Amino acid sequence: MTQGVDTTPLHTRIELEQQLISPEFFTDTIRVLTGHESIRSFDPSPIAAEVLEAILVSARSAPTSSNLQAYSIIVVEDEQRRARMAHLVGDQRYVAEAPIMLIFCADVSRLHYLAERQGHTFAADNLEMFLTASIDASLALQNALVAAESLGLGAVPIGSVRNEPSLVAEELVLPAGVFAVAGLTIGYPNAGVRRGAKPRLPSESIVHREQYSTENLEQHVSDYDAVMIANGLYAGRQVASDPQIPDAEYGWAEHTARRTSKPETLAGPSAALRDHLKDEVEARGFSIR
């Protein structure tokens, strides 16, 4: 914990939704998980080496399919490299501002090496292998995120590392068979940036019991839309479309509909760079067949 840096979550999702969960089940772990919010403004305070190591060990403790451990983590601390990475992910200043960026990669390069080492031919060149490696990397990222937040740090995943896969690979010297799936920027939050857990869709629209159901979906969307309009999250952030509508009417439903109807805006202003992502993935040594 760093003196003078605000690291206390304002409220958790359990508190936000007024969930009736007994204190004995509202553990420190549950508090961290339900108190998550993405942080995009960081204090320049460095992160101690043992704090970083605790985060990395936590990441490596995530589940991994068949113990293949088909992922790697690149730790980026160098100030100039962070600045270059900030440019490659869409000129996101907080990537350069935070003291650490972790890059989580799907990695089959070790598996190729092992097959050759043991006298076998690597034949797992299919979509399943890419999904397995990507899921391994994603689980490790989530563990790192929770570990960082449990230590009073703030963090935000960076999907924009997929904007320029070849340039990211060049910057990080990634060999064939390694693809950067997502980044994680970590640092101490600047004072006053925490707003608390963001409202989510009602549980009933996300959590299905026994079988998938769309019952009451319209009511769930309408209720959530009203919450997000009142929250003001999308005020001044409209995706360009005709006609533009007042902020008082622009909520999650319209914002999401516009983004999915304009694939170039799906993951932000640089998402159009990912139109050829399949080709980029295959160029990195994976097969999507």
TrEMBL record:
Domain named Nitroreductase: residues: 35-188
Tree of life domain: Bacteria
Keywords, in A-Z order: Flavoprotein, FMN, Oxidoreductase
RNA-binding is among the record's keywords: no
Protein's UniProt keywords contain Oxidoreductase: yes
Name of a matching Pfam family: Nitroreductase
Stretches assigned to coiled coil: none
Family the UniProt entry places it in: Belongs to the flavin oxidoreductase frp family.
Protein name, per record: NADPH-dependent oxidoreductase
